[in-house]
Amino acid sequence: MLSIETTQAPAESKLAQKNRILLIEDEDLIREMVVVALEEEGYEIHTANNGRSALSMLQNPDRDHAKLTPDLIILDLMLPEVNGLDICRLLRYQGDITPILVVSAKSSETDRVLGLEVGADDYLTKPFSMRELVARCRALLRRQRYSNSTPSSVQKYRDISLFSQECRVIVRNIEVNLSPKEFRLLELFMSYPRRVWSREQLIEQVWGPDFMGDTKTVDVHIRWLREKLEEEPSQPEYIITVRGFGYRFG
Q1: Structure pTM?
Q2: What is d(CA 6, CA 246) in angstroms, rounded to the nearest whole number?
Q3: Where are the domains of the chain?
Q4: Which of 210, 212, 236, 243 could form a disulfide with 139 if both were Cys (CB 3.0 to 4.6 A apart)?
Q5: Positions in the chain whose pLDDT score sits under 70
Q6: 134, 23 Cβ separation under 8 angstroms
Q7: What's the pLDDT score for residue 45?
């Protein structure tokens, strides 16, 4: 059941003022309730009720409106004109690393995995409480701020070069586009080569203690990361599965 009850965190209220959120939702009632809940937290909210309008706001501004650069996107999947999966897939293909929180009535494990595979950072099923939605928004924005404040450094391992400050990765002399979670995973792996990480440890380090999903999320992101790093993803040379324990790099 949708609930508009929220609990504001005083320590984050000033930070929230700086955050801009794009809400892409075609159901009027849900859109209006989410806007009220997030505005009460101090966020600046922009809305779109279909996929085409959302892409226009993000990519094709007119002469009267500047391009929108949100800090977070809340994205419904079943949208008219252009669906949410295609929006997510397109943004990631173009190298856009804005955190994306999917909210959808599609609640099966297959739907959740698919949403994460095309680039979503988190997935919330309808119906949901506004308190949980606000908490997930805070968590994604907090992790984004932490990622942006990471000191400048360059890490190299064989054919991979990772530039922390620029959020860039070069593999075999070709730049690859990684989602924020993929980048954080690779950065962690390269910082501790050959260390074995359990799924729970990776969740703690990359998703943080606020994460409310399950450990299968790690497997999804590892598989997608392998597809971008490995010459033969089915026979990985970089990210190795250690059966019964987790994963290691190198």
Answers
A1: 0.58
A2: 37
A3: 10-148, 154-249
A4: 210
A5: 1-17, 60-66, 146-153
A6: no
A7: 94
